[in-house]
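On clarity, I found the account of how folds are encoded harder to follow than it need be. Since the whole study asks how a given chain folds, the encoding of that fold should be made plain. For illustration, here is how one protein appears when written out as sequence plus structure tokens:
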Amino acid sequence: MSLPNVNINFSNGSLGTVIPPADGVCAMAIKFDSVATASGWQLFRSYAEVLAAADYPTDETDTGMLEVKAFFDKGGTKLYLKCLATTATHTAISTAEMDNLYNASNGEVRTLGVMLTVATVGEISYAYIAAMQAAADYMRNTYRAPLQVIVASSGTANAAIALTNDCPDVSLVVGQTNPNTAKFISSIGALLGRIASTDVQVNPGRVSDGGIADAAYDVHSNALLTNSQAENYNDRSFITYRTFAGKGGYYISDDPTMTAATSDYHSFARRRTANKAFRVANDVLVNRINSEVETSEGKILPVVAKGWEAEVESAIRANMTAYGNIVDVNGDGGVKCTIDPEWNVMATSTVKATLQIRPYGYAKFINVELGFML
């Protein structure tokens, strides 16, 4: 028989601790200069690991390797990398390839960068952008794992591209942070690294985070980008690089996506925030699929609806509000989930809900009246 004693057991789960989000996980599909065959998606956690890998160049002047290095230099810590075949076009980013990416990463990739190096100046076509949006749609609709695509531009957009074509998960970047006179391709590595190292609500062009590169160059001439060029690209919804008077280096200009300027999702950061809310809400509600729903006259019972609403809002608070991704006003968590109490669940086998999150505003313009005082 044991001696009389006090037994104290450690309980667990009271704090509601959550695993830090994988918001910064990125993938890059690159056509390298000196690799002739494609390989599957491989996970790397440092530039040194890529250099040591058998399928990637050891020549650190390779166009693709410069971008991989820039990703890690700017704070990226987890990268799924694929070497594209030398003959690859944008059609290589197919739904089948999205299956491969999902399986390799278990769906944790949030941002995909695509870089197809070319030897001559070319135009970005609507077919290219639409294909990238289709890839993003496929990941959202098939796997419930939304991602955004950043395309390294090899030239200017042609007249067939209109923002009304609505590709909110695609952004184009133009401008080189690693000048290469033999390849007409923009840089994506530093941009992806900045995105990977900041929270979802952060515009990658936030000036307080510092410059993205010592210099940035025009894709066609390899001359330093001017602010006049940057403004022209920005007006056409390209991400590019610019300078500020009195500050050294080049900064990311802004974060437009290829959708209408009036769209809620004309901002990469806003779309990124919404995509995170999508993932969080889906993770909660998928557990309700095919479950019983208590009803009265075909409508969900109010107490049941409140339980569902609270569950979703609690998950958003834990995974987004707690990380400052959305704006909390007077303790409301910046989130509101509402189950439609009048919808006939019995007849439709459907529960209708709305989910709203409160995003940040962005100080893109600051107007000051300067004068003298007596």
Observations:
- The longest helix spans residues 126-143.
- The chain has nine helices and 13 strands.
